[in-house]
Specification:
heterodimer, A: 117 residues, mainly beta, seven-stranded mixed beta sheet, four-stranded antiparallel beta sheet, 0% helix, 54% strand, B: 101 residues, three-stranded antiparallel beta sheet, globular
């Protein structure tokens, strides 16, 4: 199982960024996927979930209305479109696979997003 | 549900036993309580699921227990690679972490 995130970087407050996570080594279309973030020196925060088919999506309140998760089961890709970015969105963003009993059983290496004015 | 981990930092030596606590703000199903380990500069790694089931690659010196609102991760005979941050997790909520140093 391998999850590789990309698309991070420095963006101004109010700007947009699109993160991608490319999956390999497993039947991607059979697994729900998540995005989890970690602000510098802080703990883990779950932010979004997409079901295996893409039909069911959830967001944390902190990103609802600003972030959009999507997936492409042909390209084995899960994406996070982030709009109206704020300073408190600065974090390492991880994609993670949904495991048994709603765990995150595999994680990518993470990608840094820095929002600066 | 709010998960509160204690202590915030636990200072121990290799060979000792570590006991980490995770307290839920309301009774939860232990079947959905998981623990993760995060070493410096690395992504988190699933350690335990279903409260006490070790994930693939988790050494048997790690054990989980608990029910209701109080859950415990115990690490016997600490090895140097065990010194890390540990998070408990339930559904969409993580505890704030315990740093084992």
């Amino acid at each position: 199982v391998q999850l590789v995130e990309s698309g991070g970087g420095l963006v101004q407050t109010g700007g947009s960024l699109r993160l991608s996570c490319t999956a390999s080594g497993f039947m991607f279309s059979s697994y729900a996927m998540h995005w989890v973030r970690q602000a510098p020196g802080k703990g883990l925060e779950w932010i979004s979930h997409v079901s295996s088919s893409g039909s069911t999506i959830y967001y944390a309140d902190s990103v609802k209305g600003r972030f959009t998760i999507s997936r492409d089961n042909v390209r084995n890709l899960v994406s996070l479109q982030m709009n109206s970015l704020r300073g408190d969105d600065t974090a390492v963003y991880y994609c993670a696979r949904n495991g048994v009993k709603a765990t995150f059983d595999h994680w990518g290496q993470g990608v840094m997003v820095t929002v600066s004015s | 549900v709010v998960l509160t981990q204690s202590p915030g930092t636990l200072a121990l030596s290799p060979g000792e036993r570590g006991t980490l606590s995770c307290r839920a703000s309301q009774s939860i199903s232990g079947s959905y309580l998981a623990w993760y380990q995060q070493r410096p500069g690395q992504a988190p790694r699933l350690l335990m699921s279903d409260e006490s089931s070790r994930a693939t690659g988790t050494a048997d010196r790690f054990s989980g227990s608990g029910s209701g609102t109080v859950f415990t991760l115990t690490i016997d005979r600490l090895e140097p690679e065990d010194f890390a941050v540990y998070y408990c997790h339930y559904q969409d909520t993580f505890g704030q972490g315990t740093r084992l140093e």
